[in-house]
Each structure stands twice: as C-alpha cells, then as structure tokens.
Design a protein that fits this description.
362 residues, alpha/beta, five-stranded antiparallel β-sheet, globular
Amino acid sequence: MSGIEAHLRELIALEGPVTIERYMSLCLQHYYATRDPLGARGDFTTAPEISQIFGELLGLWAAEVWMAMGSPSQCRLIELGPGRGTLMADALRAAKVLPAFKAALSVHFIETSPTLRERQRAALAPSGVAVFWHDRVEDAPAGPAIIFANEFFDALPVRQYIATERGWCERLVGLSDAGLTFGLSAEPERTLTQAPHRLGDVLEIPTASIGIAGTLARRLSSDGGAALFIDYGYWGPAFGDTLQALHRHAYVDPLHEPGEADLTTHVDFHWLAKAGIDGGASFHGPVTQAAFLTALGIETRARSLKQRATEQQAADIDSAVRRLTEPGEKGMGELFKVLALSHPDLEAVPGLPKGRFSKAES
C-alpha cells in the first residue's frame, strides 16, 4: 500500500468519506509532485510532445494577439501546467519572427512540481527570455498578459452528484472491507435545482476550474490580453461520469493505487465560458482542435518543414499532423476543443469566432 493510500484510509476512518473533489486533489498533489508523467516512460503524451508545430502555431497566435492588444511594451506570457516546457520553448522560437514581441515578453509558469520545474528550466534556457515560476495563478505579476492552458483544466478536481429519488446526492470515496470504494452522501444537495434526465445521471461541477477561469477573466478585463484553453471535452450542460485514471498509457480504476495514476475528467467548456463572462471577459469559440490548427496554418507549416526534411522525417511530420487533427470521437482533432477568454475590447482572436450563449444557456 502506498503512502498516499494509507493516508486516505486513515483520513476516511477518522473523518468519514471524502468528496470526489478532495480525493482527486490529494491524489493529484502527490502524483505531480513525485514524477515527470509525460512521454513513453510516463503515463500520457500531450500535443506539444507530438510535434513542434503545435507550440510554434501557438507562438504565432500569441504574436497576433499582442499586436491586436496594441503591442504593449511589456507582456506576461503565462502558461498553466506547462509540462516539460516544450510548448513554450517552441512558441518562443516562433516568436523570433516578430522581434519586438519577443523583446516585450517575460515568461511565467504556474507550476508546483519540483521535478517539472527543472525540466522547464532546461527547456527554456536557450530562449534568452526571463522565466519565473509561481505556485498559483494569483501570484503572476499584474500587467497585459497572454495565457496558455493546454491540458490543464482536465486535471483539476471536480464535484460529482448522482440523481437519486431523494435528489442530487454527492458522490464520495469511503472504505469497505475490500478497500476504497465509491458511495453517496446521506443527504441530497438542496442547492442543486437542475432536473435530472433520469435517475442515475451524474452531474460534474468543476469548482476549481470555475474559480481559476474567473480569476483569469477578472485579470484580463482589468489588465488586457487573452487566455487560450485547449483540452479534451465538450460544450455542456450535460450529464455523465467522465472521471478516469491513466497509468502507463492505459486506463485503470480511479481507486486503484491512488496517487500513482493521472486522474482527469472531460472539460465542460460551457462552465469556463460562463466564468469568463461573469468575470468581465469575452469568450471566443469553442471550436475543435482540428479546426483551430487548420485556421492557424498547420498544413502550410508542415509543408515548410518537409522541404528541409529527410524522407523519414517528412513521414513523421505527416503522422504528427494527422494525429493532432484526427477526426472521430476519439481523435485528438475532434475530441479536443479550443476556447479563449479576452478583454472585452479584443473583438477578434485568430482561429476562433466570437462566442455567444443561446437564450437557454444564458
């Protein structure tokens, strides 16, 4: 039994069952603090690790946004959950095409993992740009900002409620003779008024994501700039249990070996857009990752790279582009969505239409 599982069992024995939100938080704190989870030897692979084109296109996107902001002399380039720093390194390399933009930048990583901070430090060393690390979004210095969050919100804790005859009861993690187990709160949550489609429906409320998106929106509406969110998910409201655990690139039981697998849920972009509006920002999108990357010129960039590539390298470039834009419910191009928040005066951002709620959603 791992140390985190022993801690969870002791905690539940003393205080009673914990919420899904608390369970995810405790497991993920341990998980990200103790390893580099990326790559073939890790548990999952993200888009920046698949192809340099992904980060380069985001760097060019940021340069266009900076110009639309009025080209401020100082701009914070902030990334939430920056992994190994690959995305930012590629983005800064692309930013060289606009020297004034790169000269205006300071890079700020929101990262708590000591292991990943060292990987990021090494990745950004050749960039020549000042890099700073912060534990929380609120700690990044004020000023105009362009913000990236790629596969960040999926790893934030959520609360889950299940529709029962008594109402919406919160899903909990407790103890049985066999170990950790799922259960329900004895009393329903009286503040939830959404009518279930049927008994057994699962409602996920991403409380942590709503809080962070709101914080970013208030910053953008005050200081200017835009935030780009890329993640696998959907446009809700919707019902369903999306909690999953990934270990060594395979799905496992979320209660098995807690703290040793990556726990995630699918992102409901409707919540992020609503938090943005409530915080005084505008929102743009969402669109599929395939549509976004195509609009930014992924095919053009791929052709340019292949002109200087060997036959094998060219084949690898084509394979990476297909993977990033793959259609179908499980293809990255369709499963992943892109949404941006911005200062209300920023009427347009590259690759994304202006977002609007329907009357039923607003």
